[in-house]
C-alpha cells in the first residue's frame, strides 16, 4: 500500500473534523448574536475551543514539514488560550493578577506568532536585497502604524485614560505591529508560494486577527459586552478558525502535497509597499477633510501626494523593468528559466491541459567552434524568431540557456497537438538557414516532450520531458520523442555502457556483418553494407541503436568507426568481382579534421582500391560544412564515393543536396515499406528517384522485403536495393559464399 493511500482515512477524518468544527462555531455564534446575555460565554468557549484545537493540530502539522514554524504556531495558540481565559477570569472576578497574566501571555503570543511567520521558508535576501526588503517592510509597517495611531492610540491621548491597563491599551497594538511585520515578511519574500497552501490560509487568519484587534480598539468597548464590540468579536472568531483550519489542513497533507515549493514572489507582491503608501495618503486626506483642516493641511497633503505619486510611479516603472530583466532572456527576448518556472507553476496549479517541449539545437557547439560566437548568436536569434512565428499566442516560448529552448504549450487535447507543433518548429527551422560568409548554417532541433498529468508538479513534468529529450538524442539528430508511461530513464545505464564501450574495440567484442546490395535489373550482388554488432560479455548482443548514440556522445565513435572501416576494407578484398563495401560515417566523424588521413591510411594498410569504398553519411551529419564538405571533396578526389543515407526522412534541404558532393542517394526503408503494385503510395519514392536522376546520382533502396516492392522500384528506375528479400546481414564467411553463388547463378542465367 502506498503512503498516500495509507493516509487517506486520516485525511477523511481531518476533513470531517474541520466541517464539524466550522458548523459548531457557526451555530455558537448565531446563538451568541441572537441571545446577547449568552454571548460572552459562547464567544469565550468558541475561542478556547479553536485555540486548543489549533495548538494540537499545529503540533501534528510540524511533523509534515516546517517544524519550527508550526511549533511556534502551537505555542502561540496555547498562549492565546491562556490570554482569553485569564482575561475572562479578570472580568469575572476583577482580580488584577489575572489581568496581568492575560496581558503578558497576549503580548508574548504576538511575539511568538511573528516569529512563526518569519520561520516559514521564503526567498533568501542578500546584500542590497535585504535593504530593499527592509524598506518595503518599513513602508507597510508605517502604514499600519498610522492606522493604529489614529484609530487606537490617539483616542487614548485625547481623553482621560486609566493607564494602569496600558498592556491592553498600548501593548496589544504594538503586538499587532509585530504580527504585521511577520505578515509583510511572508508576503514580500514570496513565502506564500514557498510554503504549502495551509500557510496561505494561516496568513489570512493572522491578517484578520490584526484587523480584529484594531477594530476592538477603534470601536471601543460599548460597556455592555465584556467580549468587546460585535464586529471585532466576529473577526476574532474567524481569525482563530482560519488558523486552526490551516493547522488541520497541514496535518492532513501527505509528503507530496505538503512539500515546499520554490520560493518566489508573484509580481503583485512587489506592489504591496506602494499600496501601503496609497492607503496612508488616503488616511491623511480623509482625516484632513474630516477635521476641517483643508486650509491648514490641504495644500501640504496635496503636495505630499504629488511628490509621493511621482516617486512611486518612477519606482513602479523601474520595478517593471527589473521584472522584465529577471524573466526575459537578453539575447533572444524570449522568456527565460525564471519566467518559465512561474508560468509553469501557475498552469499546473490551475490544472490546465499543458505540454512541455524541450528543444536542443543539434551540433550547436560545432557551429560556435567553427564559425564563432557571433554566428552562433545569429543562429539562436533565427531559431527564436522561428519559435515566435510557430507557437500560438497562448503558448510560451522560452530560452533557458545555451542552445536549450522550451515551449509551454497550452490547451493541449492530446499527443497530436504536441506532434503537430514540434514538427512545425522542426520544419520551419530546417527551412531557414542563416548565412555565415559563403556558407549556410541550418538549425536542426531535437525535441523531447511530455504532457502534464493530474497532480504532478513542475519538476516531475520537466523530468519526464528530459527523459524524452534524451531518447530523442539517442535516436539521432532532428528527432521528436513524446514521453509515455513506462519510458525508462536510461542515462545511468547508458553511462555504464559507455564505459564498457571504451574497451570493446581492443577486446574484440565488435563484430562486423554485411548486407548484400543487389542490382535490381539483373539480381547480381554489386556490394554490401557493413553493419556493426556489439557482443557484450555480460549483456549479450547490444543493438546498434543502443550503443551508437552513446559512442557519439562519448567520442568512442571515432575508434569504432575506424575499426569497422578497416574490417570492411579487409573483407571486401575476399569478395568475387569488384564488389564494393559501404561503410557509415557518424556526424562526429564528419567534424574530425583527421578524417581524411585516417580513411586514406586504412586504404593503404588494407590495399583496397578507393573505387570499391562507399562512405554513407546523413544530411543532418553535415553540421559544419566548412569541415565536412572539403573532407568529402578531398576523399572523392582519391576515388572514394559518397552516399546520402536516409534521404527523405526528417526535413531534407534541396539546397544542401545540390551542394553536397555525393554519388548515390539511398531511399529510406520507411518509403519502400509503403510501396504496392497499384503505385498509389509510390509518389514520394518516385520523386526521390527522379530527383536523383536530375542530379546525376544513382539510387539505392533500403528495406526491400517483398517481390512486389522490388518490381515497383525497378519500374520507377531505382538502380540498386538491399533488404531481407535478398539477404539478412551476414557474417564474413557467409557473405563470401553469397557473392560467389549469386554471381555464378547470375552469370549462368545470362549465358
Corresponding CATH superfamily of the largest domain? EAL domain
Number of helices: 27
CATH architectural grouping of the largest domain: Alpha-Beta Barrel
The CATH topology of the largest domain is TIM Barrel
Average pLDDT taken over every residue: 80
Q: Per DSSP, what share of the residues sits in E-state strands of 2 or more residues?
A: 5-15%
What is the straight-line distance between the termini?
A: 77 Å
How many domains, in number, for the residues? Answer: 3
The portion of residues assigned to helices is 55-70%
Evaluate the radius of gyration. Answer: 38 Å
Based on Cα principal axes, name the global outline: elongated
Strand order, sheet with most strands: 8-9-11-12-13-14-15-16
Structure, described:
With 751 residues, this protein is α/β, with parallel strands linked by helices. The chain has three domains: 3-129 and 163-263; 337-489, 2-Layer Sandwich (Alpha-Beta Plaits), CATH 3.30.70.270; 502-737, EAL domain (TIM Barrel, Alpha-Beta Barrel). It contains 27 helices and 16 strands. It has an eight-stranded mixed beta barrel with strand order 8-9-11-12-13-14-15-16, surrounded by four helices. A hairpin with a 3-residue loop joins strand 9 and strand 10. Helix 4 (96-119) runs parallel beside helix 6 and helix 6 runs antiparallel to helix 8 (197-219). The longest helix has 34 residues, at 294-327. The protein is elongated, with a radius of gyration of 38 Å.
